[in-house]
Amino acid sequence: MRHFDYARAESAQQAVAAHGSERDAAFLAGGTTLLDLVKLDVMQPQTVVDINGVDLDTIARLDDGRLRIGAMVTNTALARDERVVEDYAVLSQALLAGASTQLRNKATTGGNVMQRVRCPYFRDGVSACNKREPGSGCAAIGGVNRSVHAVLGTSDNCIATHPSDMCVAMAAIGATVEVQGPEGRREIDFADFHLLPGDTPAREHALEAGELITHVTLDAPLEGSRSAYLKLRDRQSYQFALASSAVIVRMDGNTIREARVAMGGVGTKPWRAPEVEAALKGKTASEAVFADAAKRAFENAVAYAHNGYKIPLGQQAIVRNLTDLTAA
Amino acid sequence: MDDRERLKTEVSYFDPQRHPASPSRRRFLKSAGVSGLAVAAAPALSSVSYAGSPDDPDTQAEAPPAEGQRRITLTVNGRREQLDVTPNVILLDALRHALQLTGTKKGCDHGQCGACTILVNGTSINSCLSLAVTHDGDEITTVEGLEKNGQQHPLQQAFLEHDAYQCGYCTAGQMMSALAILQDDDIGTSDADVREAMSGNICRCGAYKNIVAAVQSARGAMQGGNA
Q1: Cα–Cα distance measured from residue A160 to residue A148, given in angstroms and rounded to the nearest whole number
Q2: Which residues, other chains included, contact B166 with Cβ-Cβ below 8 Å and sequence gap of 6+?
Q3: Are A123 and A42 in contact (CB under 8 A)?
Q4: What pLDDT tens digit does each residue of chain B (227 aa) get?
Q5: Which among B41, B88, B124 has the least Cβ separation from residue A101?
Q6: How far does the CA of residue A33 sit from the closest CA of chain B (Å)?
Q7: Are A14 and B37 an interchain contact pair (Cβ–Cβ within 8 Å)?
Q8: pLDDT tens per residue, range B16-33
Q9: Sign of the CA dihedral running B199, B92, A111, A149
């Protein structure tokens, strides 16, 4: 692996100071994405700031019912936290559907929010990729774009899906990302954190240079709701989603009082679907209602040569999840 | 420079008895610049020297690490080990090259195959995606730590009995994952649970059925007090 300078920080302030606003500095949390990409020479940090010594690995319930998660809480710890299992089943399930046991033991909440795309043209280091090398073009458009390429939120510059399962659940729940930077602390709405590729696919998130994620705070659980994460993929385990759905519903008998729906594997960011939620609200649960609502999520979908199947598959991911959730 | 030579410059086993420090190891780290931070700056490859030869007359035991290296202490299979590493050395390479614990295998080197799985403080991780320098003070168990006093671990015995070794390349990682799973009360005990929890270990020769059988058999043996 290429050489880099290394600094170990013991506080968020230290980490931010050591990082500075340098484009070629990187924070090291679990390292499961960063070191992978450094080995591939896709990321080339000159300085790595290790934040494993920073005290950010606790989960706290706030007075207003929200759950504040430290950026260094591992995926395993978050998935198993009793409050998460109890109040945010969709998040626990999404985490456990992601990666492998070993990777979940190492990967962290903040790192997962910052996960890079799995597009093979981004990762191979040589193909045209506007994300890796702005202005070089996009080899995925017109290339092999079957599995990790989106039908929602794409642009002529980039069609890579956001790979995280955890973030799809967080998009459905609603959350706030707390960051610390050279200019101090600030909060970013989770819905605004990940950016659409547009004309600037290299800019993937709303962080300013040198800002560090310190916490993700989940909105208070929707009272009396049930939730689930459904992930569809080529093999049963250890694979990125072709399509997934995170669904939270609050029922009154057979009537849907409220629904929150987000999708993975089909969008260039964790994809909340307010039009689906609106179409479900107040309706009597039935497959026809679910199918009609799910269809709305894909009204603006753009299919590429090999991923058109994601439009019906994404709808099915919503319909089946709703069917299972409301049957209980 | 091939990988082996390159690694020699990046990781060295610090044992004053076997490898007395060379003068170059005594250079002090340059002032870090950020207050309170421990910083290691990576030098050019050519300026880093490997640990001195055993014949080196300079036997100062507590010489500081060479410029660009950091000294870490690991407890590996119950034994305390001191290493000097550059920041880019992964834990897997430190174990294999400096400590000669070659039971842990390098497969894909990208966290996709699980051959490098070890336990860190009782938790399974991919040692290929972890910097050695981040593990100062950690307790590590590798496949070499399974056998105790000449007695095979129930997992080793079970893998043998169920033909779960196959070519053997991924086996060390399979067994370390299995050990973590069997010691984890939060992971279910069904075949499906085992299969799911083992899915980060990829064996390309089709031994999955036998591997699951071996893990389940070892579960019985370990509960029987043989562990």
Answers
A1: 6
A2: B203, B205, B206, B207, B210
A3: yes
A4: 666 677 777 877 765 455 444 433 333 233 333 444 556 655 433 223 334 333 444 444 578 999 999 999 999 999 999 999 999 999 999 999 999 999 999 999 999 999 999 999 999 999 999 999 999 999 999 999 999 999 999 999 999 999 998 889 999 999 999 999 999 999 999 999 999 999 999 987 888 899 999 999 999 999 875 44
A5: B124
A6: 8
A7: yes
A8: 455 444 433 333 233 333
A9: negative
Nearest to A8 by CA among B75, B137, B97: B137
In tens, the pLDDT along A243-273 reads 999 999 999 999 999 999 999 999 999 999 9
Pick from A131, A95, A116: nearest CA to A246 = A95
Both tokens of B59, joined, read 């036997």
Which pair of structure tokens corresponds to residue A206? 């709303």
Of B124, B129, B199, which has the smallest distance from its Cβ to A31's Cβ? Answer: B129
Q: What is the largest CA-CA distance in chain B?
A: 60
Crossing angle of helices A166-173/A89-97, nearest 10°? 160
Give Cβ neighbours of residue A271 (< 8 Å, ≥ 6 apart). Answer: A152, A153, A168, A171, A262, A263, A264, A297
Please give the structure tokens belonging to residue A154: 């794409």
Q: How many beta carbons lie within 10 A of that of residue A274, not counting itself?
A: 13
CB–CB of B133 and A101 under 8 A? Answer: no
Determine the Cα–Cα distance for residues B86 and A208; give it in Å rounded to an integer.
Answer: 30
Residues of A with CB under 8 A from a CB of B: 1-10, 14, 17-18, 28, 31-32, 35-36, 39-40, 48, 50, 52, 76, 80, 99-103, 105-106, 236-238
The minimum CA-CA distance between A99 and chain B, rounded to whole Å, is 8
Q: Please name the residues in contact with B110: beta carbons below 8 A apart, sequence gap of 6 or more.
A: A36, A39, A40, B128, B129
Instruction: List, in sequence order, every residue forming a beta bridge with A25; answer none if it has no partner.
Output: A47
ipTM above 0.85, yes or no: yes
Cα A309 from Cα A307, distance rounded (Å): 5
- The whole-model pTM stands at 0.91
Evaluate whether B68 touches B86 at the Cβ level (below 8 Å). yes
Tokens for A245, please give them.
């759905």
pLDDT the model gives residue B23: 39
CA angle A202–A208–A213, rounded 5-degree value: 105
Q: Which two tokens stand for residue A146?
A: 């079957």
- Here the tokens at position B98 are 């400096």
Residue of chain A nearest B125, judged by CA positions? A102
Rounded to the nearest integer, the mean pLDDT of chain A is: 97
Sequence-distant contacts of B185-193: CB under 8 A, at least 24 apart:
B186/A80, B187/A101, B189/B219, B191/B216
Distance from CA of A80 to the nearest CA of B (A): 8
- Closest Cα of chain A to B6: distance in Å? 10
Query: A18 near B37, Cβ under 8 Å?
Result: yes
Enumerate the β-bridge partners of residue A264: A244
Q: How far is it, in rounded angstroms, from Cα B20 to Cα B14?
A: 8
* Interface size, chain A vs chain B, as Cβ–Cβ contacts under 8 Å: 112
Cα–Cα distance, B190 to B216 (Å, whole number)? 9
